[in-house]
Amino acid sequence: RYLQESMDKAFVNKEFQLYLQFYVEAGSFRVVGGEALSRWNHPQKGIIMPSVFVPLMEKEKMISRLDYYCLERVCEFLEHLWKKQIDSFFISCNFSRDTFSSADFVDQCKRIMAPFDFPKELLIFEITESAAAKSVAQVQENILALRSYGVRIALDDFGEGFSSFYDIQQYPIDGVKLDKGLVDDILSPSGSAIVRAMIQVGHELGMTILAEGVETEEQVYALQKMNCDVIQGFHFYVPLPYWDAEKRLLEEY
Ligand code: G
Ligand code: G
Ligand code: MN
Ligand code: NA
C-alpha cells in the first residue's frame, strides 16, 4: 500500500533508474548490445527490484507509464552513443503485455522516439507471452507496424510458462530469448537436445537466438557448440547503472 502511493511520486521525482546488462556475441564474446532493466531508487527503502514493483504496477495499471519512461531513457542513451560514434550497439527494452497489446501502443512509441536521432534497428522491443493471451490480433498488428517503422521485436522468456513454438508462428518476430530455466538444464542430455532443437528451428525461421541467465563456462561452451548467437548472463556481465555501462562502452569501442 505504502509502495503504491509512492509510485506516482517516484515518476515525478525521477526515482526510476535504468541499468544495462551487456550481451556478448557467443562466438567472440564481443559486447554487441544490452538489455535495459529498471530499478527503483526509493529515498527511504533504497534500491527496489522490478520483481517487486513490476507486478504491483501491472495490478495498478501503472506499468505502461514505466514502460514508456524506460523507452524514452533508452532512446536518449542510444542517441548519446550514436553521437559518440558507437553505432552498432543495440538495446532491448521490456514491455508488459498490457502496454504492448494496447491500440495506441505504436502511436505512443513513435511519438516518444520521434525527437531522437539514431538508427531505429538498434532498438529491440521485448515482449512476453502470458497466460491470458488476449488481444492476439492487436499484438500482431502492433508488431507489424513497429517492424515497418524499423524497430526489432524479440520474444522474451521463451520456454518458460506459457510460451511455445506456436507463438513463434503466431507472431512475426526477429528473435527469441531462451529462458534461464532452459539454460540451467543445458548440460543434461534432454536439456541439451531441447535447446539445440530450439536454436535450429529459430535459425531456420531466420531468427536471432539469445540465451539468458548464463552463469558458467560449461554453459557457454555448450551454447557455442549449438550455434547460439548471443549470450546474456552473470558469467559475463551483471546489470550496470547506465553511467557505468557508458564508461565501459567508451573503453571497449
Ligand atoms: O532486473 P531484473 O534483473 O530483476 O529484472 C526482472 C524482470 O523485470 C525482468 O523480467 C524484466 O523483464 C522486468 N523489467 C525490468 N524493467 C522493466 C520495465 O521497465 N518494464 C517492464 N514491463 N518490465 C521490466
Ligand atoms: O526480462 P527478463 O526476465 O529476461 O530479465 C532478465 C532478468 O534475469 C533480470 O532480472 C536479470 O537481472 C536476470 N539475470 C540476467 N542474467 C542472469 C544470470 O546469469 N543469473 C540470474 N540468476 N539472473 C540473471
Ligand atoms: Mn527481458
Ligand atoms: Na527473460
From TrEMBL:
Domain EAL: start-end pairs: 1-253
Protein name: EAL domain-containing protein
Species, as recorded: Anaerotignum lactatifermentans
Positions spanned in the full protein: 349 to 601 of 605
